[in-house]
Hints:
It contains nine helices and six strands. By secondary structure, it is mainly alpha-helical. Helix 3 (47-68) packs across helix 4.
Amino acid sequence: MEADIEINLSERFEAAFNRIHKALKQSAKNARTDRFYKLIEIQKNHSLIRLYEDDLHQFAKLRNAIVHEKIDLDYYIAEPHLETVEKIERIAGHFEKPKTALSIAATPVFYFYEEGKLTDVLAIINKFSHSQFPIYSRKEEYSWLLTSADIVKWMAEHFTEETIQLKKVRIKELFNKKSKHQISFAGKDTSIFELEDMFEDCRNKNEKLEGIIVTENGKPTEKPKGIITAWDLLEADSEN
């Protein structure tokens, strides 16, 4: 009976290890290797891998001992403790079901149309302290991102001795090609691995990704369900 328990623990450990390995291969884009250690190394930008890096290395060592030192079909020289097996199974679950875009996005997100009034945006800022607002065109498609900093800059540039007639100002008047913000889109079920890769790809190009707008299927013709900034990813990392 005791031998059966030990064998089951080893098999459970192997199964959980393989689940993690499979998840690492799926999250590594265009990886030229499927070696476990290498997959960890090339994906250190992922918060989940940074969190469990030491554990993953220890699991790999134990897995090698179990597999390579196995001397018979049902006999293992190295046996994992129950606590270790339960831990790797728990971590495997995290890798198989990582956080999704909508689960970490800032919500709700307020969006406006270019023909809308600036005063409506100011009312939202005053009530909710939001600072980013997707702007949509008449064709119901995302056009550009308006930020509270853009509004302050526009008001400073248009400041005169006379009072600015804010009620007459349309949102489209604040559009500035020189300060257009870079935005990407992601579906609500996009994994945190893919989101982190999107920010990392921009950093590698010396570009700044202002945010990721989350929609149903990641299309700019869909209304926003949330918005993700680099800070949101950091908060998700700290929650882990």
